[in-house]
């Protein structure tokens, strides 16, 4: 049995395109598991090499060796007839119109909306995944619509969005879909945003940078051992991703989710901040985000507010100029402050923008430059 296709009208009726909530509200709490390989949207994958032992994917550091009929760790790339194909192309399982602040991007076109899409699959396996209902599924196990790249751009434009965000799951695994969509998005005068763990090889990343205007990268910890045990990856490729994005001129913000007993060590946070400053990221916004119990770490408590506030204090003391506290509605750590005069220049209430004292990229009080895309 193939997966059931639904019309765009039915999809939008179910989902509501103006919602800024979880992607799972699209189909309720249960996503139907549909057997069989999709007969459509099997698209040639980029970045692979044929070997005597199968196709080796070269998109991400997993470098999966994929035998005939098998898939890579991401669940989206399959070897058929000695060729590598992606099954995550033109078939999103989540579509929303979100405030750009939800990504989170605090210094990129604040107050605008972003047409946000995701497919199933991920190349990591985080124990604390917040979107595991789609990221840890195969694309053909999810209810989807057909939304090809040109239509992504048209739908975003028709809904008054300033950007398209590739988000919720992991855009690396729907790489071909993002790059093709991004070209149409630029043609219609909008921007492209990725929200990613940054676990990607350098060559495809540099190609991505020709299309991407802004990125929020999850720097999940600053210990390689933690990356392996908590996320199923390694640290160094993510650090390289940060360097490449900066070098290529992509606007960058970084999120560090503080997970109790895993990534809440003050010494590790200090080391991470020192590395960021040493490598020229002092003007890059850093978001310390509160963990909430779910998926395979449901037994842990939510991150204590005191730990988030201490992390922010450490980051500021190490020389980072824009440091935020996320997932704590109403906290003053969501607002933007001028690093020179210390006055609040941008007020936020949840994902809504209040007073804005940034004019032409400068503090309206003292004239200090405020890094960002305003």
Automatic annotation (TrEMBL):
Domain called Radical SAM core: residue spans: 107-321
Classification via NCBIfam families: AmmeMemoSam_rS
Signal peptide positions on this chain: none
KW Iron-sulfur (keyword) present: yes
Name under which the protein is recorded: AmmeMemoRadiSam system radical SAM enzyme
The keyword Transmembrane belongs to this UniProt entry's keyword annotation: no
Cited InterPro entries: Aldolase_TIM, AmmeMemoSam_rS, Organic_radical-activating, rSAM, rSAM_sf
Gene name of this polypeptide: amrS
